[in-house]
Amino acid sequence: MNDILLNIIEKYRKKNGNIIFLLQETQEALGYIPKQAIDLFSEELNIAPSRIYGVATFYSQFRLKPTGKNIIVACCGTACHVKGAEKIINGLRKGLELAEDEDTTPDGEFTLEEIACLGTCSFAPVVLVNSAVYGKANINALLKKIGSKRKKSA
Amino acid sequence: MGPGGIAAGGKEVLGSFREHLLKAGIFAKLKEKCSSHQVGCLGLCARDVLVEVHINRNKTVYQYVKPDMVERIVSEHISGGKPVEEWLADDTFKTFYGKQMKIVLADCGKVDPEDINSYIYSGGYEPTREVLTSWIPDDVIDEIKTSGLRGRGGAGFPTGLKWELARRSKSEIKYIICNADEGDPGAFMDRAVIEGNPHSVIEGMIIGAFAIGSNKGYVYIRAEYPLAVERLKIALKQAYERRFLGKNIFNTSFSFDIDIKLGAGAFVCGEETALIASIEGQRGMPRPKPPFPISKGLWQRPTVINNVETLANIPYIIRKGAGWYSSFGTEKSKGTKVFALTGKIRNTGLIEVPMGISLREIIYEIGGGIEGGKALKAVQTGGPSGGCIPASMLDLNVDYESLAKAGSIVGSGGMIVLDEDNCMVNMAKYFIQFTQAESCGKCVPCRVGTKRLLEILERITKGQGRDGDIERLERLCNGVKNTSLCGLGQTAPNPILSTIRYFREEYETHIRDKKCPAKVCKDLLIYSIIEEKCKGCGTCMKACPSGAITGDKKKPHKIDPNKCIRCGACFDVCKFKSVGRD
Fold this sequence. Notes:
The complex is a heterodimer. Chain A is an alpha+beta fold. Chain A is built from seven helices and four strands. In chain A, 51% of the residues lie in helices and 12% in strands. In chain A, a hairpin with a 2-residue loop joins strand 3 and strand 4. In chain A, helix 1 runs antiparallel to helix 2 (19-30). The two termini of chain A are 28 Å apart. Chain B has five domains: 3-89, Glutaredoxin, CATH 3.40.30; 116-326, 3-Layer(aba) Sandwich (Rossmann fold), CATH 3.40.50.11540; 336-419, Ubiquitin-like (UB roll) (Roll), CATH 3.10.20; 424-513, Up-down Bundle (de novo design (two linked rop proteins)), CATH 1.20.1440.230; 525-581, Alpha-Beta Plaits. Chain B has helices at 3-7, 10-23, 26-29, 70-79, 91-98, 116-121, 126-134, 137-147, 159-168, 189-196, 198-212, 226-241, 272-279, 308-320, 322-326, 359-366, 400-405, 424-438, 444-461, 469-483, 487-491, 494-513, 539-543, 569-573, and strands at 51-55, 58-62, 175-180, 216-222, 257-263, 303-307, 336-343, 349-354, 376-381, 387-390, 414-419, 527-529, 549-550, 558-559, 579-581. In chain B, strand 4 (216-222), helix 12 (226-241) and strand 5 (257-263) form a beta-alpha-beta unit.
């Protein structure tokens, strides 16, 4: 991991980058931003860790924990909301047995993310399962789909 | 092929067309006359995938196309000359497009967004050439001022004036930024423009940069729009190859570069000063204005920030003239506006209409009316900064002034149609939940105020509303509106204020009677089984997660209200409609 991070620092210096650039590159490479990365950036670039954390926690794109193998994204845009997104999200949380305040299952199989709007409002409510679009989503069909993924990997 | 089309299988359909055309030998035989290519969003997303077949300038449109339908279309229509009647788009299609006036979207759906030649062929980059080789910057500013174009991001500031102010700012370095951080939930206009016709935005930026005297531009775009980012990258690369960007464009002394900056997901970054902070790599927090970005913006240099749709209008205004553009719209709101028409409407999609069109025309003629024959309740415009317009005001004209008077805004262009099954208190709560979560936390009125507003609304929707809550909401709303630092806080109370203004009774029913007339607020619902209708099949018993339903087989069941968690699972599964809710 260190090599990857040092590479990113190199790029940062060359491109006259900024903290967002650092974090985006890190997340692109590792899938999340580990504490180790923040410590290293802070030391190498002489930026206070609090400043990096400040940026990392400000934007919804950045994750400080690794994601599950499968990523489920539920849209909660207005069109999806008026067509019952809340029910879908609650159903998914229950079906995945997610603990409160957690977005990833303990076995590391699934991560549930909520997004403000995917822009495919004509298919509301919309759910993405590993980037495949499920429009006019139905909670039972979705849970079945997820259940079969779980069996496959078990 | 917008996001909806791809979700509906557009790529597979295109692949299938290529395959079957090749099989039929048409690609080889008619190469000069016949081509299949992808286009941006055609607009009527509800009927995706849409396919247009042009033969000798005769256009035929197919709807709901699936890959397995392609073979017949190719053999019967393209080779045989006879359209496949039963798959053709119906009359809805004509009414959907009939009232629209397309300027920004005119080329979306005609040009291939990944091929610059396709755009040039339809007249693209000609306005840039003309401006750069034979106009002076003041001509451009005058032309845009005369056109009456106003910022399409929501606030509606006159674009020509903004450019003029930036031109007068003295500095060797100036920036122009295209704001493509479309954060409103329920809005996808900017995304559609970039995905459908990215070169029009680039052209707008070049012309704008020339007018204000800038040599460097940025497109600040959401990372959540991967297709838009991809197409923009392709478009920039092609524009550089053709030397429409870079040094000495069209052999003039004017040079201009564009870079892409990916937004990292923060609604507040739609605000100009927050967006600038974000490009600089900081937390995207707004700062007090003045100084305005046109005098001190990015890296303390004069900066113009224009919305995607605003910029996409520019080449067409130059091409056809300010007089032509200002012939559309109303006295103070000129031209057209793109809206994302969604919610409980039949023809969901992307529309472009002249300013001043009535809501009734949009909803009943273009939109085809309400889904499932329900009654229209309200139209939400302007997203979390806007408000709800009740069904009784359908004849309202859609322009900056009229919507503001009605307590809403044009906003960036989301238009969400609500029917009788939508609860207005719940809508207000939904939006304040959003703004509360997106508040950057810098100023107290917004950080604390939106939280308190949310708490009151949560209480009301849980059946714990108190007398005086409506007045309490109004007072706090006005406080947040008047004292917040930036646009986010100043407009966050709008959804609450407008719903109180038009649907006060619904609030009162929630507070006094502890009832939700639209049956949305789940804590206010009581589920019970209608004995006469119940067949005793036991489906609801199995579905109930809390074991609240009991009963013998083939005899009416019962719900224990103390155990019921009001999830509605029984209501959803009952085939005999024997679960009642009140």
